[in-house]
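Structure record:
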Amino acid sequence: MVKDNIIEMAKENFGDIESQQQQQEEEQDDTSSFDCAICLNYVSSKRRFTNENRCLAHSYCLDCIQNHIQAKLDDYNIAEIKCPALDCNEVLDPLVCRSVLSPRVFEKWCDKLCESTLTQCQKAYCPLQNCSTLILNECEASVTKSNCPVCKRVFCFNCERPWHAGYSCDEARGMTDRNDILFGALMETRRWQRCPVCKHCVELISGCSIIVCRCGIRFCYLCGRSRGAQHDCVCGRLERAETCCRGICCPVIFALIIIIQATMYYFLLLRS
């Protein structure tokens, strides 16, 4: 009788242990999986993503959050990507998402964030194939000739084309002849100047910096601007720039030429 009672008590205790183990297993099953708020599938908690320290209540599977981020970058060109939950304005943390993204997607996201942060600066992309590096103008002055820090090639910052030495951006758009390109490089090397009106190329060997072009326009050889009453060259590439371009040197030379011509004409009259 006592033995039977002991057996019954053991069975009851064993049944209680089994029920407790079953309850613990059910609780573990509940915590080891969750419902993804995007695909609505029951997913293992090992593939759970939460936007840490921002919106812990919203959970997604890794596949859905990866597709969400990539779609925002590729299709919408968005830098600040928000939580995909409805009416949630929390922004996803790139550092939290880094472990679930491919290196290519993460780098692209970082580039978009840099671009959106530096909107105040002028920017251009290297036009050369297989490069397209983003370059920022951190100077206050305008920039034309630029060197790509990655491929080390030279390009025009304004029109984002390979560097067109000696030609404006508008001229470079329709320029296809290789000889024109080589001549432009020669102009840049020799520092030849072009008339601001007819674009005729001029080389100054010596003498005054004010050039009279064959089209009749007078311009400064130092800065390339038309010579007017208000012209004041400050480029300073040559020592005579300030005096000649400010109209101090040139009138004196013209006056001396007139005096010499008048003197020669006077002596010719005396001889006759």
In short: The chain has a mean pLDDT of 72.
